[in-house]
Amino acid sequence: AEAAELRARLRAVRHTVLVLSGKGGVGKSTFSALLAHGLAADETKQVALLDIDICGPSIPKMMGLEGEQVHQSGSGWSPVYVEENLGVMSVGFLLSSPDDAVIWRGPKKNGLIKQFLRDVDWGEVDYLIVDTPPGTSDEHLSIVQYLSATHIDGAVIVTTPQEVSLQDVRKEINFCRKVKLPIIGVVENMSGFVCPKCKNESQIFPPTTGGAEKMCQNLNVSLLGKVPLDPQIGKSCDRGQSFLAEAPESPATLSYRSIIQRIQEYCEQHHFQEEKIM
């Protein structure tokens, strides 16, 4: 009955992409926010961004929606909209203050994730992006389990170049394989920094073991692209603006656009193969 409820609610979602990382602080929420903005730049596409990072919900701030609240209608919870074609849902909208701590055990977190999937009225959606917390525990198992009632196109895994980050990302890749979650590919974030004045490139996080590229070769996973550091990304996120719109010529924006295009191509191909099987 539960699976049927979820299927009924998510029937109108065409593609679902999970954004994962074994490590905190690698820019996963930033990537999720910019992926949503990038997909929604096509006004013919309806995009939904679901934040299940229950203890550290940063999506409301990054999307310029701090202080917004969720409204309930006859058809369920209504998402909060950034644009007409970009809706957002986060536990951040349910807190009385952004400084409130969410001190919950696993079952309560799982209950909220289920509620987000079952009770939010997304309507017709081309892309549902799910921003997850770091790690491979409760929230990840729950979202994969609940979405298995419908379908997931796959996961995008975000890392930074240094070994301490890659170590945790390898665990995340193994998690995906164990729960049979397809991997769309890996994004190497904070990959080098080009000085705007002297144009010299510095490796802020040196890829001591070959970075994401070498890891992807070893584990037979696609590298979707490398995003260089750009201080403007942090500023745009703090202001709740889209960095892609604010700095359209930045090397980081060009890299994002290429990665987003590859994700779209993967999803379309995945959808086509599923229809063929059916």
How do the helices and strands line up, and which of them pair or pack?
Blueprint: H1 2-10, E1 13-20, H2 28-40, E2 47-51, H3 59-62, E3 71-73, E4 76-78, E5 80-83, E6 86-90, H4 106-119, E7 125-131, H5 138-147, E8 154-159, H6 163-178, E9 183-188, E10 193-194, E11 201-202, H7 211-219, E12 223-226, H8 231-239, H9 243-246, H10 251-277
Parallel strand pairs: 1-7, 1-8, 2-6, 2-7, 8-9, 9-12
Antiparallel strand pairs: 3-4, 5-6, 10-11
Textual characterization of the structure:
One of its GO terms (molecular function) is metal ion binding. It comes from Platysteira castanea. There is one protein chain. By secondary structure, the chain is of the alpha/beta class. It has one domain: P-loop containing nucleotide triphosphate hydrolases (Rossmann fold). The protein has ten helices and twelve strands. It has helices spanning 2-10, 28-40, 59-62, 106-119, 138-147, 163-178, 211-219, 231-239, 243-246, 251-277; strands at residues 13-20, 47-51, 71-73, 76-78, 80-83, 86-90, 125-131, 154-159, 183-188, 193-194, 201-202, 223-226. The strands form three sheets. The protein has an eight-stranded mixed beta sheet with strand order 5-6-2-7-1-8-9-12, with helices on both faces. It has a two-stranded antiparallel sheet with strand order 3-4. Helix 1 packs across helix 4, helix 2 crosses helix 10 (251-277) and helix 4 packs parallel to helix 5 (138-147). The protein is globular, with a radius of gyration of 18 Å.
